[in-house]
Structures are given as structure tokens and as C-alpha cells.
User: Fold this.
Amino acid sequence: MRRAWKVVAFVVVVAALLLDFAGCRRQSDRLVVAVIPKSTGAEFWETVKEGAEEAAKALDVEMKWEGPLTETELAEQNKIIENMISLQVDGIALAPLNRTAQRRTVENAVKAGIPVVIFDSEIEGKAHTSFVATNNTEGGILAARHMAELLGDKKGRVLVLRFVQGTGSTEARAAGFISRAKEAGLEIVADPYPEDATVAGCKKTAANTLEQFVENNELKLDGIFACNDRSTLGMLAALEDLRKSGVQVRTRFIGFDFTPRLIEALQNGAVDALVAQNPRKMGRVAVETLVAHLRGEKVEPLIDTGVVVVTKEKLDFDADVRRLVGLKE
Assistant:
């Protein structure tokens, strides 16, 4: 009989502890959201993180930031998503590495009762709550328009340096650029994907491609478009090496995204223009949208965070552009 009472007492104590834990959880009522970027460490994603942290602090939610080291680690990013599902976070903001391959992963999260906001790059399917991003197709179109303006009446030959195959954002930029460039009468002579997602990999592919267009010690290209910060930095380095080797380079060069190194290159004329999105705003709005949904508010299915062509002249005279790229007014 005494043994039976001990068992009952143990069950009562455990139940009380569980209820107390649940009560504390309800009393705190603090949402936990996961923000999963394409990679960590790159300047673009660090700026996204700053925006996400600003929103999390303002909205009083706990934010878990975790992503793979590079933008080719699809399996690792899926593992992170699965871990966040296991931790039962309240919601996930995800920048997917592959628009097709990760559709099922997102659907699994939603089936587990965890809403997902997609940011930066699109994904197939309709399971996600909202898509927060730059209009990447429009960014590519803006780059092509500016390239046509730079080249004037000259119907030039243009090289496009893509990024990792299957990445929704950069694929859209390349598609927008190529379509509008062709409409303007420009010839796309090559559009390679880089060896990997690093600046070094982009530089290697850029250098190997550029060699094909060097004739009589001159680069026979009229224009170059690179689809993101790493491809732009890699192409910039490859062009610098060509110049150092004595090759004449008169090619117009438009990149995408900005870093301190790219802003410096724009100021000294090594880059003609940069198409800039707003990574801080993207991170902030992704978290704001996710939290609004979790709190029962209506959110828009598509939120455009803006894109602009940045030139040296705008850096000198446009206060909004200077703020966007982090320069003092």
C-alpha cells in the first residue's frame, strides 16, 4: 500500500512540475522565431542579420539566427530547418538555397504547424505565408537599361557572370538582364556559372571566361554584368589581374549588391554602376512580417523591399543612396 502511495505522489509531483513549466511558458508569451540565411559571414548576410535583430528587439521576440557556411550547402540548410522544427520554434524566416529542391522542406515545416516566411529568393509552392524580397527580375532589367545607356548606339557584346545554379534571386537577375539586353540589341556572348559560391570561385570562372575574349592584348568585350556581391567581387579581381598583366580593358562593368570594396571600386571607376538592394530592410521586414502573422495580423503575400541603380554621381549627391550603402551624409 505504501509503495502505491509513493507512485501516486511521484506522478503528482511530475504533473505539478509540468504544469508549472507550461504556466511559465504561457506567462512569458515570448515568441521564438528562426531566421535562416543562405550563408553566414558574408557582408550581405551580416547586414540582413542586423535588420532582423532590430525587428526582433523592437517586437520583443527571441530570434535564432543560423545558416550554412556557404551558399552551396543545401543539405546543411535543410538540416538546420529540420532542427528548428524539432525545437518547435513559433515561425521560420528562410532564404532558400534552391527554389525547387526545398519546396518539400518548407511544406513539412508548415505541416508541423510552423509558418514560414520566405525572403531574398523565391521558392516553388504556396505553403509559405509571404515572400519578402527585392524584385530581382526588375533589378536585372535596370542593369540592362543602364548598360544600354552606357554603350549608347553601340550594339555591343556583353558577358554575364551568374551565381549558383538554382538560386532564385540570381537566376531572376540574370534572366531580367539578358531579356532586356537582347531587346536593346546587345549580344550575350557568354553567361557562365561560377565554380563555387565563393569570391575565389567566381574569380576563377571570370578569369577563365575573360581569357577567351582577349585579342591582341585587348579585352574584346563591351559590357559585363555580375549577378551578386561575390560574382561582382570575383569579376572585379579578374579584371584587375588582366590590367596588371598589360591587357587593355575598356569594358563597361555593372555589378549587383554592395560592399565597402565595391563602393570603393565604384568611386575610383573600376565599376560603372551597382544595382543595390536593401539587405537591412529585407531582414527587418522578414521578421516583422513573420511576427505579424504569428500575432494574427493580415500580411501581404508579396513584399518588395526595393532596388536602385547606384552610380558614382549618386554617391556624390544623393543622400538616400549614401545612407543605403552606409556612407556618411
Notes: DSSP finds twelve helices and 14 strands in the chain. Residues 29-134+279-298 form a domain with the Rossmann fold fold (CATH 3.40.50.2300). Residues 133 and 324 are 16 Å apart (CA to CA).
